[in-house]
# Entry
Amino acid sequence: MKLKTCAGILFLMVLSTIAFQASGQDALRFSVDVDQPRFDIQPTMWGLFFEDINFAADGGLYAELVKNRSFEFPKPTEAWEVVGANFFSSPLQIVNRQEHPTNPRVARIRVAGEACLINEGFRGMGIREGEPYRFSLQMAVPEGAVDVRAALLGSDGSELGNVTLRAEGAGWQSLEGEFRATGSDAKARLKVCFLGQGLVEADMISLFPVNTWKQRRNGMRADLVQMLADMEPGFLRFPGGCIVEGRDLEKRYRWKNTVGDIGIRELVINRWNDENTRLTPDYFQTFGLGFYEYFLLSEDLGAEPVPILNCGMACQFNSAEVVAMEDMEPYVQDALDLIEFTNGAADTKWGGLRAEMGHPEPFGMTFLGIGNEQWGPQYFERYALFEEALGKAHPEIRLISTTGPMAGGPLFEYSAEALKDFHPALVDEHYYNTPQWFYDNVGRYDDYDRSSYKIFAGEYAAASVGMANPENRNVWETALAEAAFMTGLERNADVVHMASYAPLLAHAEAWQWTPDLIWFDNLRVVGTPNYQVQKLYATHAGTRGLALERTDGGGNGQDGIFSSAVWDEKEQALILKLVNRNAGTVPVTVALDTRKRFAGVAGVQVLRCDDLQAENSLDDPEHIAPVGSEIKAGRKQLALELAPRSLTVITLPQQH
Ligand code: AHR
# Structure
């Protein structure tokens, strides 16, 4: 059988004990103890870290196509062009209404025949031929009679569909209409023309694809959510990351400002907005994608929601501002109110808002993170307030604390020591480092004190060039190192209860941080090799950890081979993960220490590439992708050859 891979043409061998014996090399020998699982694998083991960085929310997952739909960007006309107007004569005024403190501005337009505005979208608008789109706005016509016509313009200026709406009466009203696009374009724009005679006011000018994820209004880009769903994640952490903290406290993430009517969610400048870069001098959070939507997404994905709340501290890499200890009460109250919002009955204040938004049943949140990657005594004195208040009021909620941004060193050591006085369910550790660090740290938890706290490996990624370097690429070298490291996490899943790569999403024309798990533009999406590794692990998570050891004297990682094994109770199958770091093929045998009988054939997924610098791209998204095959299994032994520079996942079902 011949298949095309990044390595060119790969001859996939259907291996059996006999085929293996023919290879002539001495095999590395393993044995797996199938019948005596060592511990449970948490259902949360492999999950997602979502942060609104790199246009991940507005301009990304959040499917709104109009940028600055409510004229609330600091420059109110940002992303809007008034057709035919010059500096001295424009039919457009931006009116600031003090009685609407969170959405004060509206567009007021004098219409004599026709007045048009054009919105540029987020690096253009991604439009697909034949797909339905929903245009909507809020509009009042205090004088005269005015209709509104919305038309999509392709990059060449031609129309790709339109809809005309008529206002009934003078007062504020919500109008909406749908139309189908007659062509595809990654860089379309929206032209909104007011037709007639008079004065019109408009706000929340919006265009969504109808076919969002699950066809939800105010919904998410279906192709991007599908990539997340395909991973079968155990949890979804949100909303970050540094945006939880904000550059200063004024711009911190406040969950209460992100729920309820989208028309009154107050816009905030994104922590990752960067006026000094060509890519993102215009990065704001409208919060159309807010806490309610994140909880709904978690539910859709079957993932445990893991919200992270501000703990009274702004980003310590920026202003490092902290709230005075005597002023901390509202922050703790935010946490208590969030529990009511997610888990409270519909007749409570915050549970009632959830019900009003469309979800009368509780979301059933059980985890809550306090602070992002905070450090120092200023963190622990604030964390103590949360642990005390929530421990009393909600002992059922599992709190997550943190050791800060480093995986070792004085800051880390300080936190690890300080944590001895607390009782978080999990502690969030972050590892951004070189591929070699990941290989060197495969055994990080082998000798971990089992009586100490459990680990949430909340953010990690191997950097091809160096930490925080914009030249970093998602090359195979990084993904292979992460795959090896993850054998160590899986082998220690009694300690490591959650792990997530970070960041998750990046717009190819609007990013601040690299590497990232999934890249996209306005129409396309690509899973990096790192994504393929995460997906293979998450979709083969298993339920019990097994002992898989070398019987020829080697340890995990020796000879460039890394391995772990789990049992899957639901599938009644043994799952092995084997990473070969070497440039050559390595034969291995795995003795099956068991009384069970297995099927004679195992499923195999191989992710490999000879070229460590190879990547997937929007033009070639499957360059590095798993290739499936089968191998024959002996009654008491598996034998196979591990391809050079590969991750191999083997699933051997029990025979019934
Ligand atoms: O993942 C990018 C950033 O890295 C996160 O916002 C922060 O938590 C970490 O420093």
User: Anything to note?
Assistant: Residues 51, 53, 240-242, 372-373, 405, 459, 502-503, 513 surround alpha-L-arabinofuranose (CB under 6 Å).
